[in-house]
Specification:
- It is a single chain.
- This protein is α+β, with helices and mostly antiparallel strands.
- The protein has a domain of about 250 residues: Bira Bifunctional Protein, Domain 2 (BirA Bifunctional Protein, domain 2, 2-Layer Sandwich), CATH 3.30.930.
- Helices cover about 40% and strands about 20% of the residues.
- The protein contains 22 helices and 15 strands.
- The strands form 4 sheets. Strands 7-10-11-15-14-13-12 form a 7-stranded mixed beta sheet, with helices on both faces. Strands 5-1-6 form a 3-stranded antiparallel beta sheet. Strands 2-4-3 form a 3-stranded antiparallel beta sheet.
- α1 packs across α12 and α3 packs across α4.
- The longest helix is centred in the middle third of the chain and has 15 residues.
- The chain is flat, with a radius of gyration of 40 Å.
- The C terminus is likely disordered.
């Protein structure tokens, strides 16, 4: 035990030693006494006390005393009476007063009328009846009595008027039950009572502290940092250093870190940038033209229905691009134009194409990019998309999507599979492909990744070669491969969660426990 005490002594800070030594001299010393006697500030004393208390060397007792006094308004009411008491005095003679005559008849000020009526009714001294205030039987009985709030006001006034009383504050602990009730009433009113709280601390040496004092220790300044001069001259050899216990308990720290969904988005962004793609962005408010029509999706398609898409009231319409592009898209829808297709065989509507929607995918960014730029193009985009989905454990009305295209001569479906394979490899997945159908690509494929822990394949994204009906109106004469991936689904796999809502709940416990480094590091 002796060696253990020596170890504890050696690890004490000089302020802790000074405080403990002061308590040995006089255990009734206050923090102010200790600070004054040792040339310390109060903050240092209390910090040292807290540290000693955490080591079970001393006990810190905290006492909060609360005292009250009258404000100037409170003193005025204590002298002339509360407004409702002045009204009751008149009511006891008149029995009832017209509301419009209340101020004139009782001498109360206009701004007090509402307060007076409220307290008269609350105290059951009066009641409102057809535009008049009438005294109640309870009010009749109370006209010669004083309420607890009035008794307390009188006590506080007498205390302040007592010339022999230098400290005119009254401690709340000195009030009896009735006066406490009166204090609660006065505290419900504005600016009558002023409360002063004073916190005092006292210290008590525990058994461990007694053993330390019995063992004894010296108080010597300790080096907390070294200067270059001390290192050069060798003075550091003569300095006193306080040892540290490297096995001591330490508080759990939760460092700031990126949200897991944001971290995956940044990981995906970096992969595409490393693969030589450029990034594009677009508005979440999009015209039906770019969101649907430019992708050769017919205007009577089910996905355009109100139950599937969010339509915007303001603005209700969006501007369409130049007339040549609009006419080309319209002709492709109606007859197939110069694409070799028969089109959809209906009358295409410009008004429908103008409708403002919250984008249902980011593919509209891809068609805009193709219309505005000359191939070769390697572009990706990441953004929020919106669909009218019922919120469940696997669906949300808004989520994130990453989209990409490659447009160049001589590229083929094989290039599409190779690009996707490299992308998923960098994410840490083994990938396989299976045929699929998407309205604006042909050939089309779905990408499935293998999960070892579940020994199963999970669909994670769609892709394909843009159809001529998409490309020709945009003036593109080279093949274009396109792909898209829902990021939330990837996040659920990465973080092993089964409820997509977890990504947006801000569950602090889950966010804290999630490792800072998660997933496959990029090459």
């Amino acid at each position: 035990m002796s060696e253990n005490i020596i170890k504890v002594i050696n690890e004490l800070h000089i302020y802790e030693k000074k405080l403990l030594k002061s308590l040995e001299e006089n255990e009734n010393y206050t923090p102010e006494n200790i600070a004054r006697n040792n040339s310390m500030d109060i903050k240092s004393v209390m910090s040292a006390a807290g540290s000693l208390a955490s080591k079970d060397i001393i006990e810190v007792d905290k006492t909060v005393t609360e005292s009250i006094k009258l404000t100037d308004v409170g003193k005025k009411y204590a002298e002339i009476g509360l407004p409702e008491r002045r009204v009751l005095n008149v009511l006891s003679q008149e029995k009832e007063i017209a509301m419009k005559d209340l101020a004139k008849s009782t001498g109360i000020e206009n701004h007090e009328i509402k307060i007076v009526i409220g307290w008269l009714v609350r105290k059951k001294w009066g009641k409102i009846d057809k535009g008049t205030i009438k005294i109640t039987d309870f009010g009749e009985d109370f006209k010669d009595k004083k309420g607890n709030d009035e008794i307390l006001l009188e006590k506080l006034l007498n205390n302040e008027n007592n010339q022999n009383n230098e400290n005119f504050l009254i401690l709340v602990t000195d009030l009896d039950e009735d006066l406490i009730s009166g204090l609660k009433q006065l505290n419900e009113r504005k600016n009558l009572i002023e409360t002063d709280k004073k916190t005092t601390h006292s210290f008590k040496i525990l058994d461990k502290g007694e053993k330390i004092l019995k063992k004894g220790f010296s108080i010597q300044e300790e080096a907390t940092q070294l200067t270059s001069e001390q290192l050069k001259t060798g003075e550091w050899k003569n300095l006193k250093y306080r040892p540290y216990d490297i096995n001591a308990e330490y508080p759990e720290i939760f460092p700031g870190k990126g949200h897991p969904l944001r971290r995956i988005i940044e990981e995906i962004r970096e992969i595409f940038l490393n693969l030589g793609f450029s990034e594009s962005n677009g508005s979440i408010l999009e015209s039906a033209f770019w969101n649907f029509d430019s992708l050769f999706q017919p205007q009577d398609h089910a996905a355009r229905e109100m139950q599937d898409t969010f339509y915007v009231k303001n603005p209700q319409d969006c501007h369409l691009p130049d007339q040549e592009l609009v006419d080309s898209v319209a002709k492709t829808h109606e007859t197939g134009g110069n694409t070799g297709s028969e089109g959809w065989n209906y009358k295409w509507s410009k008004e429908v194409a103008k409708q403002a929607v919250l984008r249902t995918h980011t593919t509209g960014i891809s068609t805009r990019c193709l219309e505005e730029n000359e191939p070769p193009i390697k572009m990706f985009s990441v953004g929020r998309v919106f669909r009218r989905e019922t919120i469940t454990y696997k669906h949300l009305p808004e989520f994130h999507q990453v989209e990409g295209i490659v447009a160049a001569k001589d590229i083929s479906y094989q290039n599409l599979l190779g690009t996707l394979k490299e992308f998923y490899k960098k994410l840490g997945f083994e990938v396989r492909f299976r045929p699929a159908y998407f309205p604006y690509t042909y050939l089309s494929t779905e990408c499935e990744v293998y999960l070892e822990e579940k020994e199963s394949w999970i669909e994670l994204g769609g892709s394909g070669m843009f159809r001529p009906e998409v490309l020709k109106p945009l003036g593109i004469d080279v093949p274009v491969l396109a792909f898209g991936l829902g990021i939330e689904r990837l996040a659920m796999i990465r973080y092993d969660i089964s409820d997509i809502r977890m990504l947006y709940k801000s569950d602090i416990k889950w966010l804290r426990e999630l490792p800072i480094e998660n997933g496959i590091k990029l090459d």
